[in-house]
Amino acid sequence: MTSSEDEDRGDVQHQGVHYDTGTVFRGPGYAISTRRAALDLAVVRRELEIIRDDLHANAVRIVGSDVRRLTAVAEIALGLNLEVWFSPAFFEYSPEETTTRLVAAAEAAAPLEAAHPRRVNLVAGGELTLFMPGILPGKDITGRMKALKADPALLGNGKLAAYLAALVPRLRAVFDGPLIYASLTFERVDWGPFDYVGIDHYREARTKDRYVEMLQPVLATGKPVIVTEFGMRTLAGAESS
Questions:
Q1: Distance CA 216, CA 238 (A)
Q2: What is the Cα–Cα distance from 62 to 204, expressed in whole angstroms?
Q3: In tens digits, what is the pLDDT along the chain, a chain of 241 residues?
Q4: Angle at 182 between CA 181 and CA 186, to 5 degrees
Q5: Could you tell me whether strands 16-20 and 179-184 are parallel, antiparallel, or unpaired per DSSP bridges?
Q6: N or C end of the chain, less CB within 10 A?
Q7: Which of 123, 189, 206 is CA-nearest to residue 155?
């Protein structure tokens, strides 16, 4: 993850690394899983030290489906003076269950934020148009992508905006720190309730010549912009695939 200027702290840049504590991809249509059978906290500490010292990051996006793991890793990261982006990842739950789980995650993050003000940020879900039922037609991600390809106008149905508008007050009731949503480049989000604009924006062969240009609509919001995801696949030549 990386960012534009932070309006509260001048020219400070958020330069972070995505750290997966174990993500469960539920249901059909998923070809990947990052489950970790065990989480050795000594290994976690060493990996976070590498992120800080060798990769020169000042932030870490801690991702996963187990809130207890997220909390334990966040405590270590904060002890290493890394800024934390607390990022619970829940796939294929109903909107009601997704909200319940995100609120529980916010409650877990709240004591960390209270102890480390402005150093714990809550990522209030991400890419929900595809990963949560109810925004688009389709029983799984494959069906939703087919529906979107067949009718891109579905993005204007207002369902994502309505969901986030109801979610944010629930999160703010239990968490006092900054909020962000990690959006797809094509999702239509009302950024008014959020402290940051978040966008998963990958630099690859199709986007490299217009990468910054594609960010102009979110930069125009006037809010700090966090590119919450920008690269994946560690094989040589992945950026051209």
A1: 25
A2: 24
A3: 666 544 444 444 788 899 999 888 877 656 555 667 788 999 999 999 999 999 999 999 999 999 999 999 999 999 999 999 999 999 999 999 999 999 999 999 999 999 999 999 999 999 999 999 999 999 999 999 999 999 999 999 999 999 999 999 999 999 999 999 999 989 999 999 999 999 987 777 777 777 777 788 888 888 999 888 887 666 676 666 5
A4: 110
A5: unpaired
A6: C
A7: 189
